[in-house]
Amino acid sequence: MGVKITGAGELRAALKRNADLSSVRRIVHQNGAELQAKAQRNAPVDTGTLKRSIGMEISDGGRTATVAPVAEYAPYPEFGTRFMAAQPYVGPAFWEQKEQFKSDMGKLAR
Length: 110
What we know:
By secondary structure, the protein is mainly alpha-helical. It is about 55% helix and about 10% strand. The longest helix is centred in the first third of the chain and has 21 residues, at about 20-40.
């Protein structure tokens, strides 16, 4: 009695292909840049400081993109205060981009 394993060559090729993270890095960078652009488009503009303060940082070997405003007053328009209504700009951009990112990663995993 013996055990026959079929498809080992295909499995090895798929593992090797998926081990290359350059495609993941590309998707992370692309989606991060799109998220930054959407957040900048959504940002309320008075002087333009808030819009210009929205930056993107790539970390974790290219597997993480962080998009955030650095203006000290950035949370006030996003969440509002007792004196002003919220004008969300990062949250809506994130939720929209999240679906695109999931789709792009799903295509890569196939």
